[in-house]
From TrEMBL:
Pfam families in the cross-refs: FHA
GO cellular component terms, semicolon-separated: cytoplasm
GO biological process, one term: innate immune response
PANTHER family: TRAF-INTERACTING PROTEIN WITH FHA DOMAIN-CONTAINING PROTEIN A, TRAF-INTERACTING PROTEIN WITH FHA DOMAIN-CONTAINING PROTEIN A FAMILY MEMBER
Species of the source: Piaya cayana (Common squirrel cuckoo)
Annotated Basic and acidic residues bias: 176-185
Subcellular localization: Cytoplasm
Family the UniProt entry places it in: Belongs to the TIFA family.
Protein's name in the database: TRAF-interacting protein with FHA domain-containing protein A
Signal peptide positions on this chain: none
Amino acid sequence: MTSLEEAETEETVTCLHMTFYHPCQEEKMMFRCLNVLRREQVRADELAKFGRDSNICRYNLMDSRVSRIQFSLQFYRKLNSSELCFEIKNMSKKTKLFVGHTELGYLNKTDLPQKCIICFGEYQILAEVQEGESMDYFHTRLHLSDVPILQERRLPSPHPVPESGIYSAVPSQDRSPTETDENKS
């Protein structure tokens, strides 16, 4: 037998590609602590946390408006299946997290689709899962976008996007629709 025949079968690794956008990223440099364009290996039993607290979060967003832990991602295998998936959980008490068209309040969680946009505040993150077989770890690869992801990808937004392309998932005020009588002045 040759060494090639005796070699272990190479296992593919799931990779989560995340493209980040914020309208003030040039001025505020909130992504400066992210390892952009480099694959990072994460153990399968580790939560991948995103937020501003560098002692708790693996992925730091340098912005005082971001929660200490904004959201977390859990890698898991579906019951009675070989399918490997991610679950996303909103860890912010103050800010809702939008995953595609699903709104997550504090401690709500949902499966991360193969491709979706995650929004909170003025942040837009395109998440794309590249499937793999390894159950011991996964990779992350982070990217930055110069243009709003909702505009660039021409994907539907959970809310209307103004012409400026700046989208805020958190309304500036709690306004609910009011009914008025058009006959009254």
